[in-house]
Amino acid sequence: IHNVIFDSSKEASILVAQEIANIIQRKEELNEPCILGLATGSSPIKVYEELVRLHKEEGLSFENVVTFNLDEYYPMDKKDIQSYWYFMHEHLFNHVNILPQNINIPDGNISNEDLQQYCIDYEMKIKAYGGLDFQLLGIGRTGHIGFNEPGSHVNSGTRSITLDHLTRVDAASSFLGIDNVPRKAITMGIGTVKHAKRIVLLGWGISKAEIIKKTIEGEISSRVPATYLQQHNNTTFVLDTEASSELT
Ligand code: F6R
User: Fold this and answer.
1) Best mutation site among 38, 40, 169 for ligand 1, i.e. most ligand atoms within 8 A of its Cβ?
2) pTM for this structure?
3) Domains of the chain from N-terminus onward
4) pLDDT one-digit tens code per residue, 199-234
């Protein structure tokens, strides 16, 4: 893992958006689709803001972009304001020229009966495109990437999981109380993420300092799933001063 540390998350996010824009444009010149793995939550908001600006002010086109989101709560209706479907449309998709059929977000409304096959199909669809060109990640205080909570297998694929208590605590405020936070989610696996050609993980603020230290300096273990990124040869952690403050 290679880390870069910035004074502000805003400045950092602008550079990450620029890297994504460069990949989109390079792929466009090759007449190929650009396959992006995307995250939700507070960490990527400014990256999406800058991508929207690049689209509106500098002509960046999303016509050749295909997206796969990491995760969605389960069960969850996409029209619900807490859904990751809603988040992605609000922060990115409604403001750029991506084709609706190129947007992939796990369906939090799939029936229990169809869930397992649905996850296998999601995984196969990523593979059919030749894998992810770029994967954007945040990190949870449990060490999750996507919703791969402690115990996740290094080769795991897209599947349903049970959220950790701490993850539900952290989500409680946006759900107006922990009792409203779903207990499960659908997530891309550690294996899915690790197959991406390029990975950028964003970490902002003091609340992430301890897990960032464990992830970068700790031993590789399913107890901190993000440590599996140490085995990926093209991963950068983009941090602000606070999130990097525990690093030696
Ligand atoms: C969301 C996701 C999660 C978040 C993580 C950090 O799609 O995959 O792993 O990235 O929970 O969330 P924030 O950015 O809100 O601190």
Assistant:
1) 40
2) 0.98
3) 14-136+144-201+225-233 (3.40.50.1360)
4) 999 999 999 999 999 999 999 999 999 999 999 999
